Amino acid sequence: AKRRGRGRFELFDEELRARAGERVRLERDLHRALEREQFRVVYQPVVDVRTRQVVGAEALLRWDHPDWGTVSPMEFIPVAEESGDIVAIGEWVLREACGQVSRWQQRWPEFRLSVNVSGRQVAEPGLPERVAAILAEEGLAPGTLGLEITESVLMEADGDPEVILARLREAGARLLLDDFGTGYSSLSYLKRFPLDTLKIDRSFVDGLGSEDEDSAIVAAIVQLASTLDLTVVAEGVETEEQLAQLLALQCDLAQGYLLSRPIDAPDLERLLGDTPEP
Ligand code: C2E
Ligand code: CA
Ligand code: CA
Ligand code: CA
């Protein structure tokens, strides 16, 4: 790089420094965000494909930064993973979301919640005990809480993911395999791990009705799930056409902007209130 002349080298250098500076600030501010109460949880409704009734929701984390506005979890979750802050943040999300659902349980006893968990959280000893403690404190019935885990989390887990997952299930959590179909060893995972639900990745739902390959892949996943007695959820449903295809393929559940964006707890409560009880 030095041969290119001083000017360019310095420009490059400055840009690098600026970017590194941003990253340092992101890390530092993220580390403080919990105590500064800058996080909130939004809920994306999950609906029954046949009836369109809301049967549950996925909890999604939001960070309101005083200068940057709402920062996407795609940006800050990897940073929190690397620093280790994700462990405390993840526990906060679990408590917050479970506390919310415990307030709804009287009125909507069938309501199911799912929360994303990261690799660092799964690797941390004691997650099953903490999950059990939160469920007990909030008085949630077994099966109310689901944990969404990606294949990469299972792949990177040191220790024995089978044992950890079995203990999480004993603690009363359901297990959902997130972004299904995007990883490498999906099929062997279905055999190895005690899963309850597959979430079909948005990338396959995208082309439903327009791309033959996507329809074939979704059909195969739904079939597989049915054979293995797993519930199947389609993610990222944006059009009526996609939902019609999912109905024809007998997919159980769906979530996506067509049905609802992620919303705050009061809005979800209003939505549930409008839905006739099953
Ligand atoms: P994910 O678990 O795959 O979550 C689904 C993402 O798709 C969410 O983005 C959701 O808002 C978005 N989405 C839902 N419906 C549609 C749709 O119809 N079209 C499109 N284009 N997008 C849709 P979000 O909230 O930005 O979260 C991004 C990712 O960040 C999540 O992907 C998850 O991996 C991670 N994340 C979010 N909250 C948490 C958390 O509390 N803990 C951990 N560990 N990760 C989280
Ligand atoms: Ca998820
Ligand atoms: Ca997903
Ligand atoms: Ca995803």
TrEMBL record:
Organism field: Svornostia abyssi
Domain EAL intervals: 23-276
Name this protein carries in UniProt: EAL domain-containing protein
Entire-sequence positions represented here: 611 to 888 of 893
